[in-house]
Amino acid sequence: MHASTPASTSASASPSTDTARPPRTLRWRVIDIVVASVLGVAIGLVFWAWNTVGYAWFTGMDGLTPGLGGLAVGIWLIGGVIGGLVIRKPGAALLVEVIAAIVSMLIGNVWGVSTLLSGLVQGLGAELIFALFLYRRFTLPVAMLAGVGAAVAAWVFELFYGSSPNILKTLEFNTIYLVSVVVSGAVLAGLVGWLAVRALAATGVLNRFAAGREARREV
């Protein structure tokens, strides 16, 4: 029988540095729920303000080239991106986007209950991207991909939903609209959302979150 040497016994008894670290938990804390709710309400107010500005932009761009109005959609997708970047837990992107949609709907807009349905779909689109990275990567490219995920989900939803779904429109329209929404999702939701989280982190309000701690390390 092979006898273990003192060195090998010590090595086997002592956990490695990696295993000694406590694993990052994906369980929700009370503060996660509170901050997600606050973010949802704040972004819902942004949605409500954008309902007028964005819809005017959407209509104007569509008047120039049908489908180009999709360039205005990105701001309505930003809730899922910000929620995922700040909370970094399963369901965060979906929850923040849905709360924001509910706030926008309750304050009043022309879309009514479809606002909530859109929020659900768009939140799921962003959520899927964060899930693909196992809720471990929150870089600018991931944020922009989350915006694209929300955009594609919104495009699919509008393709089939409503009294005049986009599937009844031309292939040219749907192609232009898809490209426009994806670009808007990447820039207005992904890039702007990422910059907004960094700006929040710089103020110190996110110090109890990984996003805030990362910002401190970069200073």
Number of helical regions: 9
Helix content: over 70%
Q: Can you count the beta strands?
A: 0
SSE-based structural type: mainly alpha
End-to-end C-alpha gap: 56 Å
Strand content bin? under 5%
The biggest sheet, with number of strands, parallel, antiparallel or mixed sense and barrel status, is:
none
Order of helices and strands: HHHHHHHHH
Q: Quote the average pLDDT.
A: 89
What does this structure look like?
By secondary structure, this protein is mostly helical. The chain contains nine helices and no strands. Helix 3 (30-64) packs across helix 5 and helix 4 (78-87) runs antiparallel to helix 7 (140-160). The radius of gyration is 21 Å and the shape is globular.
